[in-house]
Design goal:
CATH class of one domain: Alpha Beta
Structural class: alpha+beta
CATH architecture of one domain: 2-Layer Sandwich
Number of helices: 9
Helix content: 55-70%
Largest sheet: 4 strands, antiparallel
Keywords: Membrane, Transmembrane, Transmembrane helix
CATH superfamily of one domain: EIF_2_alpha
Order of helices and strands: HHEHHHEEHHEHH
CATH topology of one domain: Alpha-Beta Plaits
Strand order of the largest sheet: 2-3-1-4
Mean pLDDT: 75
Low-confidence stretches: 1-9
Organism: Streptomyces roseochromogenus subsp. oscitans DS 12.976
Number of strands: 4
Distance between the termini: 11 Å
Shape: elongated
Strand content: 5-15%
Protein name: Lipopolysaccharide biosynthesis protein
Length: 222
């Protein structure tokens, strides 16, 4: 049998191998550092957002004989109507903002256990957030009065929105922490993918090596 000659390793391959090992060693810390820097910069550049919430409750009207349990179903229905154009057009008079802007900054949530609607407004200014939430809740109660005779249900403001004192958006420190976690995760995923490619390249290189000659062929050659 003939021995396969050892393949000589070129100098540049050694340099690339060392550089690759060094890169893999610092891949996760570098990704976490870059992610933290990007997240912190985003938290500093983006203006803080403030949220204010107004609560509205659905109750049977005094002149109707509606079942109190039906108020829960109507609260769910009015919660879907709260962000519709008919309500926002009425609310823009008190909020001082166009209906399109109100639709982007207002959301309504309902409870499965109580006939209550939470209307939350988000804005860069705390006073505007409270004014928008109160304007939309007031417009929704007026909308319910128009259909009181048909539904037997009225909406009453349970709690008005107050001006928030702290932002609801993430702080720059929290944004940096989230960015660091995301960057480290991406670095770890890249680190997991790298050995598979190296193993595949090694298997491909081994498959290209010539197989040793059989013993019978060696005897015939003699």
């Amino acid at each position: 049998m003939t021995d396969t000659p050892a393949l000589s390793v070129r100098p540049y391959r050694r340099i690339l191998s060392k550089a690759s090992r060094l890169l893999l060693r610092w891949l996760i810390p570098a990704g976490a550092l870059l992610g933290a820097a990007a997240g912190g910069a985003y938290g500093v550049v983006k203006p803080p957002q403030y949220s204010a919430t107004s609560y509205v409750i659905a109750v049977p009207s005094q002149k109707s004989r509606a079942d109190p349990a039906a108020a829960l179903g109507f609260a769910q229905a009015y919660g879907r109507v709260a962000t519709q154009l008919a309500v926002l057009v009425e609310a823009q008079k008190g909020a001082g903002e166009p209906a399109a802007e109100l639709r982007r900054s207002v959301r309504a949530e309902t409870s499965p256990d109580a006939p209550m609607i939470a209307i939350t407004a988000t804005s860069e200014r705390p006073a505007w957030a409270a004014d928008i939430a109160n304007a939309v809740s007031g417009a929704l109660t007026q909308q319910a009065k128009h259909t009181e005779k048909a539904t037997g249900i009225v909406l009453t403001r349970l709690s008005g929105a107050v001006e928030p004192t702290e932002p609801s958006s993430p702080s720059p420190a929290l944004s940096a922490l989230v960015g660091a976690c995301a960057g480290g995760l991406l670095g770890g995923l890249a680190l997991l993918v790298r050995p598979r490619r190296a193993a595949a390249d090694n298997d491909r290189g081994r498959a290209q090596l010539p197989a040793p000659a059989p013993a019978a062929d060696a005897q015939e050659a003699r």
